[in-house]
Amino acid sequence: MPSIESNQLLLAAAAACEDKKAEDIRILALDPAESGLTDYFLICNGTNDRQNVAITDEIELRLKREFGVYPNSVEGRRQAEWILMDYVDFIVHVFSAEKRAFYGLERLRKSATTISVADLHAEVKASLTTRRLKKTPAPTAPKKIAVAKKSSAVVKKVAAKKTTKKTVSAAKSSKVTATKTGRKPSTKK
């Protein structure tokens, strides 16, 4: 059974397709007995090759920005007639209208169940509500703030070391200069 997180990713990908005006968006829930490959197919088509690339770019950008997830592989982006994005739990197929009619993935996967975006959204919402009732903490995305704090602390340490090195090297150079000229080194700072 697919996890809530993978369903949320699938919903975000479908929303990205809608935002880029993809046509005939369908989600196929694959039969687990028939397909050990993945849980879902997200299938849509664009009106031209440029739109197909824009759809896949938006999916990749949104999933990266919101969830920190990248596709395992992307195929067909150069020709842009059938672009396939593999996210393990689901696979996105963005077709040109002609290629979609020719290959007919919906026909090939007769045992697959077509799920609407609204149904999937309701399922995710119900699962999240059940999780809250059970008081199970939801998995959180890695905190980027902690990384930023660490990196600023490292920058401060490096800056402090550089300042210390400059002070030490300035003191050494004044001692060397003073001994060459025969004067006492100054102790002022």
From TrEMBL:
Question: By its UniProt entry, which Pfam families does this protein fall under?
Answer: RsfS
SUPFAM superfamilies xref list: Nucleotidyltransferase (SSF81301)
Name the segments for region: Disordered: 166-189
Q: Which UniProt keywords apply?
A: Cytoplasm, Repressor, Translation regulation
Gene Ontology molecular function, alphabetical: ribosomal large subunit binding
Show the ranges annotated as biased composition (Low complexity).
166-180
Residues in a coiled coil are: none
Tell me which InterPro entries the record gives: Iojap/RsfS/C7orf30 (IPR004394), NT_sf (IPR043519)
Q: Does the keyword Repressor apply?
A: yes
Q: Does the keyword Repressor apply?
A: yes
Query: Which cellular component appears as one GO term in the record?
Result: cytoplasm
Task: List GO BP terms, alphabetically.
Answer: cytosolic ribosome assembly; negative regulation of ribosome biogenesis; negative regulation of translation
Please give the chief subcellular localization of this protein.
Answer: cytoplasm
> Localized where?
Cytoplasm
Share what the entry says about its subunit structure, partners included.
Interacts with ribosomal protein uL14 (rplN).
- What job does the chain carry out? Functions as a ribosomal silencing factor. Interacts with ribosomal protein uL14 (rplN), blocking formation of intersubunit bridge B8. Prevents association of the 30S and 50S ribosomal subunits and the formation of functional ribosomes, thus repressing translation.
Q: Which family does the UniProt entry place this protein in? A: Belongs to the Iojap/RsfS family.
**Which PANTHER family does UniProt cross-reference here?**
IOJAP SUPERFAMILY ORTHOLOG, MITOCHONDRIAL ASSEMBLY OF RIBOSOMAL LARGE SUBUNIT PROTEIN 1
Which protein are we looking at?
A: Ribosomal silencing factor RsfS
Q: Could you tell me which species this protein originates from?
A: Tunturiibacter gelidiferens
**Organism lineage string:** Bacteria, Pseudomonadati, Acidobacteriota, Terriglobia, Terriglobales
